[in-house]
Design goal:
11 helices; 85% helix; 0% strand; flat
């Protein structure tokens, strides 16, 4: 006789795969694989289109980053199309939407499936993220390593509150979004000097972002070790 309680996580896992499959088909139908490397395409879609252009960019950024497209690329396109300031904000917001999508799909469709098969590993991740969830999420996003999509899915199967994870992630996205938006805006500059300056500022800020990420992570690890020693004592 079949076990309905054991079948439910499998069905949810299949539903999660179906959702991501649908998103991939949508991205292909929109031609994102080719268009996201074409600066003129994104410019044609948003320039002079007002709020519709902004919403289009947010939607494309959210969809692309939810499928694993590097957020640095969409920030670069945002800077090229909107300038460094609005490009940074819109790219960060769009990437946060992609993060929220991955997190939500994993939490409501994939959680039971993952916990049923990787309970111990999921418990370790859960304990890690629940310790200062906003700060932990911020530290993860600031580090110049890791995969945006996989991190969001992994967090979705834990018990970390969605609002804390998405807020921490959005704050962590900001520095690199700024870096690549400045770079993108620089390529759209009319003067050679403007381009050179934007590249120089981008490289400097990228190094500063990497240093900040490592500093936050080291401080977090030190505090975690201090807490463990205090508990043992």
């Amino acid at each position: 006789m079949s076990n309905p309680s054991g079948l439910k996580p499998v069905l949810k896992g299949l539903a999660m795969l179906a959702v991501f499959g649908g998103l991939i088909l949508l991205a292909r139908n929109l031609g994102l694989e080719q268009h996201l490397t074409d600066r003129q395409w994104i410019l044609a879609q948003v320039q002079g289109n007002g709020i519709a252009g902004v919403l289009f960019f947010l939607g494309v950024t959210g969809l692309a980053t939810s499928l694993g497209v590097p957020r640095q690329l969409t920030a670069f396109l945002g800077g090229y199309a909107f300038g460094w300031f609005w490009g940074t904000l819109l790219a960060t917001l769009g990437t946060a939407l992609g993060c929220a999508l991955d997190f939500s799909v994993a939490r409501y469709l994939g959680r039971d499936f993952v916990l049923a098969r990787f309970g111990k590993r999921a418990a370790k991740l859960d304990a890690f993220l629940r310790t200062g969830p906003v700060r932990t999420s911020l530290a993860i996003r600031l580090l110049p390593v890791g995969h945006n999509l996989l991190t969001s899915i992994a967090a979705g199967v834990t018990s970390i509150p969605a609002r804390y994870f998405i807020l921490g992630s959005a704050l962590g996205y900001l520095p690199q979004s700024l870096v690549f938006a400045i770079f993108g805006a620089g390529l759209g500059a009319e003067s050679t000097l403007g381009r050179v300056l934007s590249i120089g500022v981008s490289v400097t800020l990228l190094a500063a972002s990497a240093w900040l990420g490592m500093s936050v992570y080291r401080a977090y690890k030190r505090e975690g070790m201090d807490l463990e020693e205090a508990e043992e004592g």
